[in-house]
Amino acid sequence: MAREIKPHIGIYGRRNNGKSSFINCITGQHTAIVSDVAGTTTDPVKKSYEITSFGPVILIDTAGIDDVGGLGKQRIDKTVDTVKQIDLAILIIINNTFGFFEYQLVEEFKRYETPFIIIHNKADICGLDLSFKIKIEAEFKTNIIEFSALKPVNFEDVIRAIKQTIPESAYKQPSLVGDLINYGDIVLLITPIDLEAPAGRLILPQVQTIRDVLDNDAVVIILKEREVDAFLKKTNIKPNLAITDSSIFLKADASIPKEIPLTGFSVILARLKGNFEKYLEGTPRIDDLKDGNNVLLLESCTHHVSCEDIGRTKIPRWISNYTGKKLNFEVVSGLDNLPKKIIDYSLVIQCGGCMITEKQLKNRLIPAIEAGVPVTNYGMTIAFVQGIYNRAIEPFVKNKEMNYL
To answer: For residues 395 and 244, what is the distance between their CA atoms, to the nearest angstrom?
Structure first.
């Protein structure tokens, strides 16, 4: 399946360690502002680049981790916050110095299971000391690469380290439905065209699914929801799998014969990118909601909000009707900070995450999981409150013994 999200690589280090010069060197462009003045980069800057001999990536140039003052503390917080967004970290050090700031950053890398590379920069001014190299490499089980942005004799070593260290999942995604279908199978996609549908095109999860089915040498049939009944009756075609937009789960459930597996685009994305096991645990916790509880909905992108927005209108209405409780719903778009502490929420509902990387989505959920707050997904939530949860997840859990089935 073609990947729409590029690998994210964060560049970290103290002020004036040459982070921007390093970026300019590996991209072969003057893409970041370079200055001898410490603190030139004040906020994380995210841009799409081509790394020579590797390919397209999103590079994040960050402020120095040793910034000072009130504003400096805010800049450091923003720098550390980017660790949740990246697939690979590159830590730039100089002068054989690895101290408090670096150790703090490495702890964040470990917390979010982010692989990292250490670059000893400005080697033309101060070379890498052998005893220092041995100590750090033994402590972190990684190599330190001696480098100079002005005289990049070890350029290929850096590129090789990036290729070897960045997880394959950062640039290769598993199949969406490849394990559910076989050669020549027929997959029916039910795609409503309503106020939320973008003009002149399909939404990204639908496009991804079409491509994935084709890549698995199967047949795709695409229908609007009101055409399904007539199509099945006239053609007598029996699809091997049906996938629907979550907003019309009930209609699809009524139209698709029970012997045909049925799931939703958002449920497929939940398995592909989200913490599916935690979703399976968290979704039934909707039954535990009480009056006054706070429910957080996480949208991973910003979009035009319609009167029938799935996250802001439909899901809150459906949950309220299902539970009969007076709940407080809050929506956070993109990767913005939360308005409350995570422990103030009784449930977190994540969208499918089609516009962000798997790492970004999973890291978005870590604070809730660590705090014991139940997490679920848009599609799984909708299926649950509409009474067809078991059917929607059955294609993925039919071989597991789970007490909620």
So the answer is: 14
